[in-house]
Amino acid sequence: MVSERWREWIPPLLIEEAPLTTSLWAPGRPLVEPLITWPREVIERMRAGYQCVNCLEPQEHAWPEVCSLCRFPIRTRQAEFFARAYAGDVMLDGRNWDEELDGLEERRRKEEERARQDDQQRR
């Protein structure tokens, strides 16, 4: 039985439309694929072979021969599929602290300049 920790559904953080590509099924007809941003825990499950990249079903053991639900050949194809489909880590609403500090420094300089100008106008 799959442990309860791995059974828990973790929803994607973000789903967007990928750039349009040509459909293999109907030439000239656009096919839209989703770009899905998963939490780090889900990525690690897929990378470690505990979750099927095809149907997202949790697996009782790492790298089973085939997925227990959709029969995707996890042991032979998942690593290749993951390497091709994984686009890397993305920070959602992450802060660039260097930019934040630069912005604060710029604001401080502008406020000092305004205060100097106000002092000069009062004299």
What features would you highlight for this structure?
123 residues; mainly alpha; 10% strand; elongated; 2 domains
What do you see in this structure?
The protein is mainly alpha-helical and 123 residues long. The chain has 2 domains: 4-92, no CATH class; 94-123. Helix content is 41%, strand content 10%. The protein has helices at 4-7, 40-47, 74-85, 97-122, and strands at 14-17, 21-22, 30-31, 34-37. The protein has a two-stranded antiparallel ribbon. Strands 2-3 form a two-stranded antiparallel sheet. Strand 2 (21-22) and strand 3 form a beta hairpin. It is elongated. The model has no long low-confidence stretch (mean pLDDT 79).
Q: What is the structure about, briefly put?
A:
By secondary structure, this protein is mainly alpha-helical. Helices cover 41% and strands 10% of the residues. The mean pLDDT is 79.
Low-confidence stretches: none
Largest pleated sheet: 2 strands, antiparallel
Per DSSP E runs of 2 or more residues, the count of β-strands stands at: 4
Q: Please state how the strands of the largest beta sheet are arranged side by side.
A: 1-4
